[in-house]
Amino acid sequence: MKYPFFDREQLDIRSLDERANKVVFERDMISPMHAPQNISESGYYLIEETAERIRTAREKKSSVMLAFGAHTIKNCMAPTLIELMKGGWVTHLATNGAGIIHDWEIAFQGQTSEDVRTNVERGQFGIWEEPGFFINLAIIAGAYEGLGYGESVGKMIACEGLKIPEISELFDLATRFMSSEPEDIGESEILHHGQNDVLLKIKYAPSDPERAAAAIDFAGVIKRCKLKAGWMPIPHPYKQYSVQAQAYELGIPFTGHPMFGHDIIYTHPMNHGAAIGRTALTDFQRYAASVSHLEDGVYMSVGSAVMSPMIFEKSLSMAQNIKIQGGKHIDNHYILVVDLAESDWDWQRDGEPPMDHPAYYLRYCKTFHRMGGEMHYLTADNRDFLLALYRNLSNKK
To answer: Which tens digits make up the pLDDT trace of 217-233?
Structure first.
């Protein structure tokens, strides 16, 4: 039986120039020196405890992970996130697909956040050329290069462009990737990095079917879209405000954890499911690797009710599996969950609430509480939390 199939090629895809945005970064940005506005006395105590745990974790070279929802980016908290990275306080950042997109839109145009209600009514929500074309293309190129989801987009922003290979080169490499014979097929390659060119030595592993498939996918996209081989410049005039670009430059993992159909880039014909899957899987494995170093470490989940708890529980289970095989176990990890939802339940002191208590249905709290270690919940705006945390860590109270 043949089922109906939606043809995205028929969409009227318009330029971002036509889109009104609710967030203008240079107007709405929040300085890391801005004082938090609304944190309770107990909240400050919990943030001080978290900061101290972070200091200890960094001394012991344990992971300090910060996972957050898209509103952290939409709230213009990039300067504070960047300072936390530059200060060496955070070793891994993670967000969902929307967080990746908002960060890219700010880097590309200095604005983000369209009017969803109005644009759905007009049949225009999310149907925009630049994010659909460039973000998807960055992910397709990143899949071929063996990069992660967030890393692919961060590299495009930082380098302000993408390298488009010759189709014949991709087909040739795909053939060699399928070879069972060990072979170094690397060539010197020029990476255009802003105003400077960087010479890289790239070596391709032999017999790599995944890379072969990614190369063929890339070739198919180049042919279908009639892309010219060579360097494709993509200016990002606000790239200094991009968290994922700064993470790429600093060598800090910034992983993206999308779900199919959740984000506006899926409306564009450039969207490529295999590339999404390859880069997102790479990021999941990098995330799990950071979780495996959480003994004496810190995990902060800020405003992420689904992505963060769901990938954390699977990653921790895998990490424990490996640790147990080596006669070890991750026990001394500290988890702080931050959200606006009110909760008067003390998860650390009182354990899991009964099913007739509203706190039981804060699913993310329930998930994290089941992960062992020490878990606390803080009711706070993500802006106030991050500002207070940065001020404490940088001794700028």
So the answer is: 999 999 999 999 999 99
